[in-house]
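Side project, low priority. Logging it here so it doesn't get lost.
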Amino acid sequence: MTNQTILFYYSKCATCRKAEKWLKEKGVTFEYRQMKDEKPTAHEIEQWIADTGLPVAKFFNTSGLLYKEQNMKDKVKVLPQSELVSILASDGMMVKRPIALVGNKVLVGFKEEEWAEVF
């Protein structure tokens, strides 16, 4: 694979560890980016939305404590995209994970079938 792979990851996340193990088993080399410490920028998130065509709501970690504490379930339905992107960029724990970047492909969450199509 010629494209560099970046894995946005949180080490305490079981799904992230599963994705990491899967990539290693496939022999994929990748660079880690700890979601909590190296949170994605607003520009990166805007690019992911553009690359995937997914609505901004799909990038929220809906199981996260922060998402629930801030009552984001209702906010994602009414706030403008620019404000939602700012919220995502403000705290890496708000972002759904893992996210794998491979060239211009963006994989959000770990779904083995989707990942198998890319790797």
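Brief comment: The first strand starts at residue 5 and ends at 9.
Revisit when time allows.
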